């Protein structure tokens, strides 16, 4: 019971910090999430509401990474397993810490990304940009790579670009 209460408190603090970060212009800020032990950064201006895992209705003939649709606060959202879409999926069951991160409503796409866990907020001051070592072309939604004080690498994902990516929008496989 204490774990659930601590998790609710963390979510409440995150929601408050998200709202404060959106209204302040202090440089770039991100929501840090983890998927299959990899760190990803969602720009705060593009990330929307965070939800606990909700019942998902599967969609026939869709890709395995498209889990289906869920009713989130009275609106239907497509639910995408982010690790599955990116091709970094480890065989892990859903955890109590798994969350759905919706796209900001301004992006006009009713979609939520399934992530393994939330890792808080990050700002430019907390991260150091890394040299791009990619040898080939990258999808347009893949942004810069950063390293934090602990040496953890974080990959930025541009949700606005992801929302218009042809492969992301093609859920039928």
UniProtKB/TrEMBL annotation:
PANTHER family: CHEMOTAXIS SENSOR HISTIDINE KINASE-RELATED, PROTEIN PILI. This is Chemotaxis protein CheW. It comes from Piscinibacter terrae. GO terms for cellular component: cytosol. PROSITE patterns: CHEW (PS50851). It holds the Pfam family CheW. One of its GO terms (biological process) is signal transduction. It comes from the Bacteria.
């Amino acid at each position: 019971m204490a774990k659930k209460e601590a998790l609710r408190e963390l979510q409440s603090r995150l929601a408050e910090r998200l709202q404060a970060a959106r209204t302040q212009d202090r440089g770039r800020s991100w929501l840090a999430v983890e998927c299959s032990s990899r760190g990803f950064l969602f720009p705060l201006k593009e990330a929307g509401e965070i939800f606990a895992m909700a019942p998902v209705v599967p969609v026939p003939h869709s890709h395995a990474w498209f889990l289906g649709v869920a009713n989130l606060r009275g609106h239907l959202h497509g639910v995408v397993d982010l690790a599955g879409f990116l091709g970094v999926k480890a065989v892990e069951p859903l955890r109590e810490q798994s969350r759905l991160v919706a796209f900001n409503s301004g992006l006009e796409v009713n979609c939520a990304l399934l992530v393994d866990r939330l890792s808080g907020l990050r700002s430019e001051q907390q991260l150091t940009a890394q040299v791009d070592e990619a040898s080939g072309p990258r999808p347009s939604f893949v942004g810069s790579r950063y390293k934090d004080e602990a040496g953890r690498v974080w990959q930025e994902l541009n949700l606005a670009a992801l929302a218009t990516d042809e492969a992301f929008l093609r859920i039928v496989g």
